[in-house]
Amino acid sequence: MGRWDSFASLASSVGLSASAAHASVRRLVAVNLVSEDGRGVNANALAEFLVHGLKYVFPGRRGGMGRGIPTGVAAPPLEREFGPGDGEIPVWPHPEGRARGYELTPLCPTVPQVCMADPALYEWMALIDAIRAGRARERELATKIVEKRLGRGHGH
């Protein structure tokens, strides 16, 4: 997800209304995950939340088998590490999806569509799904990647 210059452009890039984007940024500011202007990230707080808190707020709900867009270990950047797997891959249900696997409820209904147009956001969402719904080894590697990307190295 690139830089944004207004709540309207942010909203458009993530598939929300401008008012929902504004409310979301205000909540992030209130809990100190982003700076007061909503543009700077508190890397330590964000990493802590993603690794330790997100799975409680947005648990990974596993559904039945279906078609969709690969996520978690079946999507970049983790797919390089885990390969094709045992055929039981997580997918976000989506009519344009070309993969078959168990359905994993995305954080927000707009995530699959938005991620199809934004490869960087897709990687972040896949990493987050591995943390909130993956097996121990998958969570561990996703955590290391998230912490590295947020400038935290491998420690806590």
Record the SSE blueprint.
Blueprint: H1 7-14, H2 18-30, H3 43-57, E1 62-70, H4 79-82, E2 90-93, E3 99-104, H5 111-117, H6 119-133, H7 136-149
Parallel strand pairs: 2-3
Antiparallel strand pairs: 1-2, 1-3
In short:
This protein has 156 residues and is of the alpha+beta class. The chain contains seven helices and three strands, in the order H-H-H-E-H-E-E-H-H-H.
Structure notes:
The chain is α+β, with helices and mostly antiparallel strands and 156 residues long. The protein folds into two domains: 7-41, no CATH class; 62-149, no CATH class. The protein has helices at 7-14, 18-30, 43-57, 79-82, 111-117, 119-133, 136-149; strands at 62-70, 90-93, 99-104. Strands 1, 2 and 3 form a three-stranded mixed sheet that branches. Helix 6 (119-133) crosses helix 7 (136-149).
Distance between the termini: 25 Å
Compute the gyration radius: what is it? 15 Å
DSSP strand content: 5-15%
The biggest sheet, with number of strands, parallel, antiparallel or mixed sense and barrel status, is: 3 strands, mixed
Q: Helix segment count?
A: 7
Coarse structural class:
alpha+beta
Work out the count of structural domains. Answer: 2
Helix content: 40-55%
**What is the average per-residue confidence, as pLDDT, rounded to a whole number?**
87
Give the CA-based shape. globular
What is the strand tally? 3
User: Unreliable runs, pLDDT <50, ≥5 residues?
Assistant: none
Helix and strand run: HHHEHEEHHH
